[in-house]
Specification:
The protein has a five-stranded parallel beta sheet with strand order 2-3-1-4-5, sandwiched between helices. The termini are far apart. It has one domain: Rossmann fold (3-Layer(aba) Sandwich), CATH 3.40.50.300. The protein has 298 residues and is α/β, with parallel strands linked by helices. Helix content is 53%, strand content 7%.
C-alpha cells in the first residue's frame, strides 16, 4: 500500500509540474488561500543544504525543493534577457505562493526573487544556508560532472542557461585551471565571485530580524533555533535529518580542486570570498586537500 501511495503522490506531483504553464494563466482567485503555520524561504546556494531543509520540513509541513524549477529558470532567463519586466516576476511569485501554499519553499533559485519576496510578503522569513567556499565548490563541481549523464535534461530544463548566467562572467581559464577547462567547468573567478554575490545580496536585502543564517555543517544542531525563529512549537522538527541526507552523497567527491595549484586556488578564493569567510568560517584558513589528509592519516 505504501508503494502505491508513494507512486500516486509522485504521479500527481509530476502532473502538476507539467501543468505549471497552464496553471500560471488561471486567475489567482481560482486557487484557495491556505492557512499557513508559517511562511519561509530557504535562499542558500546550491549544495548548502537546501535539499536537507526540505526533508526536515516536509514531514509535517508543506515544503518543496526547487518547485517548478524548469518554469522558474525560464522566467529568470527571460528577465535577464529583457524579454519580461519585473512586474511579470512579481505576478508569478504571488501566483506561485497562492497555488502551492508552501510553508517552506527551499531553492537557491529564490535568490533571483529575494527582493520581491521581501517586499511582497512582509510576513515571510528567510533562512540562508551558507557553506565555506572550498567545500561548496568541490561539492558543486562533483554534482555537475555527475549530471553529465543527464545532459539533455540539464539543457532542456534551463539549468545550463542558469549556470551560465551565474558562473560564466569570467570566461577565460588560466593555465592553472586546465583541469576545470578539460572538464567543461567554469573558472574559479566565476564560481567564487558568485558565491560572494549570492550570499552578500541575501544578507544586504533581507532585514536582519527576518533572516536566520545557518551554516551547512550545523543544520542539524540548528533545528531548535529554526523552530524559535519561525514561531513553531519546540520539538516540531525531526532530529538528525541533515546527517541522513548527507550520507547519500558520501564518497562521491572527485577532489578536482586538489589538482589545482593550492596558492592559486587560495588567491582566487581570498580575492572574492575573504570578507564573508572571515566572518562565518574563521576556522577555515585555506584549502584543505582531502587526498593529502587521507594519506597523512594512513
Amino acid at each position: 500500500m505504501r508503494v502505491i501511495k508513494n507512486f500516486k503522490k509522485k504521479l500527481i506531483k509530476r502532473a502538476n509540474y507539467l501543468a505549471t504553464p497552464l496553471y500560471n494563466h488561471i486567475p489567482l482567485w481560482c486557487f484557495p488561500e491556505r492557512q499557513l503555520s508559517f511562511h519561509a524561504y530557504c535562499v542558500g546556494l546550491p549544495k548548502t543544504g537546501t535539499v536537507s531543509m526540505t526533508v526536515i520540513f516536509e514531514r509535517q509541513y508543506r515544503a518543496a525543493h526547487e518547485s517548478e524549477s524548469s518554469f522558474v529558470n525560464n522566467k529568470i532567463i527571460a528577465f535577464a534577457n529583457g524579454k519580461i519586466d519585473k512586474s511579470e516576476l512579481i505576478r508569478y511569485v504571488e501566483h506561485k505562493k497562492r497555488r502551492l501554499g508552501l510553508e517552506m519553499d527551499s531553492s537557491w533559485l529564490n535568490y533571483f526573487f529575494v527582493d520581491i519576496l521581501v517586499n511582497e510578503f512582509p510576513d515571510a522569513k528567510f533562512i540562508l544556508t551558507i557553506r565555506d567556499c572550498y567545500s561548496w565548490l568541490e561539492s558543486l563541481i562533483t554534482q555537475r560532472i555527475f549530471m553529465r549523464q543527464f545532459e539533455n535534461f540539464y539543457i532542456k530544463h534551463g539549468w545550463k542557461d542558469i549556470n551560465d548566467l551565474c558562473f560564466k562572467k569570467h570566461k577565460k581559464h588560466a593555465k592553472e585551471e586546465k583541469v576545470l577547462a578539460d572538464n567543461g567547468l567554469y573558472t574559479l573567478d566565476g564560481y567564487f565571485s558568485y558565491w560572494k554575490e549570492h550570499n552578500s545580496k541575501v544578507l544586504a536585502t533581507v532585514p536582519e530580524e527576518r533572516l536566520l543564517v545557518v551554516k551547512t555543517p550545523e543544520i542539524n544542531q540548528s533545528l531548535r533555533k529554526m523552530e524559535e525563529f519561525l514561531g513553531m512549537m519546540p520539538g516540531s522538527l525531526p532530529n538528525n535529518v541533515h546527517s541522513n541526507v548527507r550520507k547519500k552523497v558520501e564518497g562521491k567527491k572527485l577532489n578536482i580542486l586538489s589538482q589545482i595549484d593550492k596558492d592559486f586556488l587560495e588567491e582566487k578564493a581570498n580575492f572574492h570570498c575573504k570578507e564573508l569567510m572571515d566572518k562565518y568560517f574563521p576556522e577555515v584558513k585555506g584549502y584543505s586537500n582531502p587526498v593529502q589528509n587521507a594519506t597523512k592519516s594512513n
